Amino acid sequence: MTKHTLFVCKSCHRSSEERPEKAPFDGDILLDQLNTLCAQQFHANELKIQPVGCLWACNKGCVVSVSSHNKPTYVFANLLPEESPAPLLEFIQLYIKSRKGVLAWEQLPDLLQSASIAQIPPVKS
């Protein structure tokens, strides 16, 4: 089975809010929540959650991307750590089940329809 990867930007934070100096970044909060939920819903060989330092969308709130071999990569932004873990995991379940990873915009959970930035085609060798 092909492993799918969820990249989560650890340094993301809502730009409209001041972050207290020692408070965690929103990206760290989202990462923790996703790790907890994924442990309950996915087998270790299905999904890898990989934290990254930055996904270069700093003015876009929490940013994640989902990719797998021979499937398009999806990028989502403006995610709130309180609201987005469940819709992200719903999307990932659809993505894993899809042989080619191509999902119609209408198939995305409602929250992700407004958060989608890009669907990047897979690299063909």
Our count of helices gives 3
CATH topology: Glutaredoxin
Overall residue-averaged pLDDT value: 88
- Order of the strands making up the biggest sheet: 2-1-3-4-5
CA radius of gyration: 14 Å
Structural class: alpha+beta
* Low-pLDDT sequence parts: none
Query: Overall 3D geometry?
Result: globular
For the sheet with most strands, the description reads: 5 strands, mixed
CATH superfamily placement:
Glutaredoxin
Query: Can you identify the CATH class?
Result: Alpha Beta
Helix-strand string: EHEEEHHE
- Helix fraction by DSSP (H/I, runs of at least 4): 25-40%
Task: Report on this structure.
With 125 residues, the protein is α+β, with helices and mostly antiparallel strands. The chain has one domain (4-120): Glutaredoxin. It is built from three helices and five strands. Strands 2-1-3-4-5 form a five-stranded mixed beta sheet, covered by helices on one side. The model has no long low-confidence stretch (mean pLDDT 88).
